[in-house]
């Protein structure tokens, strides 16, 4: 359990793992019971995640609440301050996602001029620049389970169904029913008593749960409807059907449990990707330790073929990393010293030494699981409507069933037994389980499916809104582009291209400037032999000089180079053309003679053009909002075919998002999560683009973990498929009930089909929702 104050210092939160909760009626009963405790302000229950979060004012008797929920037959495990239940998955309270709760950091894009949109400026030089409150006591204890109060298991159904409590009870009742049929034929005079006995084996635990739920504030539970129908059937001498109905009810619950377990394990299986042990380096020696004991700053050895056991930075070694288990990226990514790696990914062909940057409970996978679990507790608008509807729907069904049972005999003298039987059947048909689970089942499956593809969505409301987006505004640097410059052209003037690159790399050796890193990366790619440089000196805003191979060498902006050598018109035009393409050009002068030039640009992501086309094809308007200069932004925009608004301050980006909204667009904003904070907050949906960083995971409404532009379209598509699935589920749930309601009243169907209508609809709805787990 974790307790935390809100900004006004008056509210706290307690979070629990709930065992045995695998259907909508379970969640409704738990929610109602918890809300009846004085001091409890709000309750969020997630069937898919098996969790409950309780917001309270600090005076609530949490022990009494835990006892009341445990009394319903569910096990509770309080989550600790770090968000970890014993043997559970890390959990914590989500950050404030409101505009005021988002970081408002300045843009990292360059802004040399005032805001402009869709225009181009020429003539810019690309000069080189080197250089309070308290916590309440934790309730970390498990309450004793009250045997038989709940037909659901009190632990995840991770083994064969027949070994679970629910499975064993269903088997026993099934066997009792078979024996009752046999004995009923042998001694027909007592068949009513025999079937009643068989029925009671299953009904007693159901009835006890119904009574406990009624005392906890849920009188119209499915267990209560089931109990009334079964007892009523015995009273009107339909004990054989009563026994069969109880058995079918248990079978339906069993199927619900299996389906819910599958949905829950989809996201939980991510935790299995992280190895249990790691090879820790200490004092020049290596020893195996539990991965959960690794601390930030530790250095671990990862052998070829091993899974990486913690998030970290490579301190030695170069290897291809298979990130498919975490991001779905099929091609291994080559990573070397200084680059980040994630827990659960697979090291390829060389040993790596990695410095740990996150403890086990805070690694990428743990945070993904945590965020998805907590997102499942946030109800979507459709789900909230269905919940409200079901509060009136179930009592309404009870009233209708009572009227059907009583009015015809009283008004027209119809047979009491026949119409009571029909009334009992309507009770079973009217169970709201399938209707209530229709939305959360689909949303849980979608959130899990998205997470496994690196698409993090913070709740059902976000998932619903994504499908309504009609405009998406993108940041440039690090979103549409890779975020770091790359060498695009090596131009030979007085020396050959290899010499130009080799000597330039000598000047840049040891520099961490992004342009220097780009030159060094290209020289390493070509495996050039880089000479040593001496007497290196940075010239602020101009470039750098040094002695290389006995000659004075200068590398810097064209403007600064002209101060040293004359630049022929043909070369000058070539440099201007490169500038017009949005490229930064550095000129190399060796021994007072023009040697060559190197052009660099922050290139678009490999899938940026295709990703933007997917959005355009779906009828979504796209626009680039950047603080970079208009010429560079315009060149990138022209390559990608996207409208450009350049030289913007952070507040300008927010203003443009607002203008789009006033024009009637539903706007999504895609950025890195920090420099675009105002625009992310202003947009209907803020989407962070990043590789699993804290910002990418925790700042915006949604996050694309592995930075593919095409994943924005995938998110929107997932939202649309989910909403279609939800409406299919609602149609299945209400359609089956409507059909069987009519056939029951006209006498075509009875108790058996009635219970099949309920459990069948619930299972169909769940299976339909699980289709969303497929890619």
Automatic annotation (TrEMBL):
Keyword Membrane assigned: yes
Compositionally biased residues, Low complexity: 89-100
Source species of the chain: Aliirhizobium cellulosilyticum
Transmembrane segments: 169-187, 193-211, 218-236, 242-260, 392-412, 424-447, 726-748, 754-773
Biased composition (Basic and acidic residues): 105-123, 132-141
NCBIfam families linked: ATPase-IB1_Cu, ATPase-IB2_Cd, ATPase-IB_hvy, ATPase_P-type
Matching InterPro entries: ATPase_P-typ_cyto_dom_N, ATPase_P-typ_P_site, ATPase_P-typ_TM_dom_sf, ATPase_P-typ_transduc_dom_A_sf, ATPase_P-type_domA, Cation_Transport_ATPase_IB, HAD-like_sf, HAD_sf
Protein name from the UniProt record: P-type Zn(2+) transporter
Gene Ontology, cellular component aspect: plasma membrane
Domain of life (superkingdom): Bacteria
Residue ranges that the Swiss-Prot or TrEMBL entry lists as coiled coil: none
Topology in the lipid bilayer: Multi-pass membrane protein
Subcellular location(s) of the protein: Cell membrane; Membrane
Reaction catalysis annotation: Zn(2+)(in) + ATP + H2O = Zn(2+)(out) + ADP + phosphate + H(+)
SUPFAM superfamilies for this protein: Calcium ATPase, transduction domain A, Calcium ATPase, transmembrane domain M, HAD-like, HMA, heavy metal-associated domain
